[in-house]
């Protein structure tokens, strides 16, 4: 704890310099020295103030599930750490190196969805409309700081365990911009909440966030389903049989996931890498050794849906070595029965949209 405080103090001058830079950039947009483009199609952005871990992908999927039966939707992501450049339409048969892990996850889970990646969203949206003129909604993934596009509805996520109100600018903290940037949000979702969150705890955090008059705060959590076998989705792992778990993950902030697994399993080990890490053969060999060293009995390897898209690059090795890797799916739920109210706000924005 003391070392952490010392490190933050040493890094604070660099955070100030970073903050001045990002503050100047935002000032140029406020003064209209740079222009934020609006489009003739509804645009909803889901993002956060911090670097990774707030749950943007599951919340985008929540919107897709709720809206895709009624609208032609396209998603637009940067395709973080992909090994290609420019605008690409993501197809299910592509791999994570081509398009990024999260876009590939969307394309495979929602085959009727138009999934796209591009570095410059302002140029990509006209490309989407040109290719699919019937597009009725664009969902921007992780675009809160991408000021070149002005979304019609801006959804800001912040983690319950580390809300932006208690965080600091990079590099002493995890914030990408000053806390005041939250003022651009229309909805604020406190994500990864405990399943037993009380109304009192929620109200205390609302008071801490101190939302503006136009903002509404929601609280969400993850509802995990039974893990499925990575190489054949038909086979499910029954966690109620006391299975020992080895978790392999390369996502930001695994505490929430590990807490869930510990409630399901008598023994949980974790093999963790940096967010979006591309697993190599050495990583797979380490995984194999760690799994072999686990006590004999009922045991399995578990990973996330996002990590599975990168592990799949080693599909042949996993099959040949018979590694029992299971993927843990999840869905977003809202506390206090407020899911319908969240849905209503999104629906009202779409109904009232004027090109």
Low-confidence stretches: none
Strand percentage lies at 15-25%
The amount of helix comes to 25-40%
Order the strands across the largest sheet as they lie in space.
3-4-2-5-1-6-7-8-15
Would you count the extended β strands for me? 15
Principal-axis shape = globular
Describe the structure.
With 355 residues, this protein is α/β, with parallel strands linked by helices. Helix 4 packs across helix 9. The longest helix is centred in the first third of the chain and has 29 residues. The protein is globular. The termini are far apart.
Helix and strand arrangement:
Blueprint: H1 2-30, E1 43-48, H2 56-67, E2 73-77, E3 88-90, H3 96-99, H4 101-109, E4 114-117, H5 121-131, E5 137-141, E6 153-159, E7 187-191, H6 199-209, E8 216-224, E9 228-229, E10 232-236, E11 244-249, H7 255-264, E12 268-272, H8 281-293, E13 299-304, H9 305-311, H10 315-320, E14 325-328, E15 330-334, H11 339-352
Parallel strand pairs: 1-5, 1-6, 2-4, 2-5, 6-7, 7-8, 11-12, 11-13, 13-14
Antiparallel strand pairs: 3-4, 8-15, 9-10, 9-14
Could you write a compact summary of the structure shown?
With 355 residues, the chain is an alpha/beta fold. The chain is built from eleven helices and 15 strands.
What characteristics describe this protein?
single chain; about 350 residues; alpha/beta; Rossmann fold; 2 domains; 15 strands; about 20% strand
């Amino acid at each position: 704890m003391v070392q952490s405080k010392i490190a933050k103090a040493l890094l604070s001058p660099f955070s100030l310099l970073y903050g001045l830079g990002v503050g100047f950039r935002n000032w140029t947009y406020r003064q209209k020295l740079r222009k934020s483009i609006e489009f003739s199609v509804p645009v909803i952005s889901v993002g956060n103030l911090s670097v990774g871990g707030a749950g943007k992908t599951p919340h985008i999927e929540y919107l897709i599930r709720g809206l895709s039966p009624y609208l032609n939707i396209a998603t637009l992501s940067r395709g973080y750490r992909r090994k290609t450049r420019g605008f690409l339409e993501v197809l299910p048969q592509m791999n994570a190196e081509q398009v990024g892990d999260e876009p590939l996850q969307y394309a495979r889970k929602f085959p009727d969805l138009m999934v796209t990646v591009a570095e410059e969203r302002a140029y990509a949206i006209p490309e989407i409309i040109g290719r699919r003129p019937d597009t009725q909604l664009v969902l921007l993934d992780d675009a809160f700081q991408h000021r070149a596009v002005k979304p019609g509805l801006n959804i800001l996520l912040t983690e319950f365990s580390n809300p932006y109100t208690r965080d600091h600018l990079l590099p002493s903290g995890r914030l990408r911009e000053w806390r005041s940037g939250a003022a651009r949000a229309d909805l604020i979702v406190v994500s990864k909440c405990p399943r037993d969150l009380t109304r009192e705890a929620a109200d205390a955090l609302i008071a801490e966030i101190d939302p503006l008059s136009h903002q509404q705060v929601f609280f969400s959590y993850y509802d995990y389903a039974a893990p499925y076998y990575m190489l054949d989705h038909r086979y499910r792992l029954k966690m109620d049989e006391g299975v020992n778990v080895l978790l392999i993950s390369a996502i930001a902030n695994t505490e929430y996931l590990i807490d869930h697994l510990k409630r399901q399993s008598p023994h949980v080990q974790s093999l963790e890498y940096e967010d979006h890490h591309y697993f190599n053969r050495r990583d797979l060999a380490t995984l194999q050794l760690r799994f072999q060293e686990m006590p004999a009995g009922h045991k399995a390897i578990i990973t996330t849906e996002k990590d599975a898209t990168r592990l799949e690059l080693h599909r042949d090795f996993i099959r040949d070595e018979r590694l029992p890797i299971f993927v843990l799916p999840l869905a977003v739920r809202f506390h206090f029965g407020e899911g319908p109210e969240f849905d209503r706000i999104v629906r009202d924005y779409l109904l009232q949209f004027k090109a």
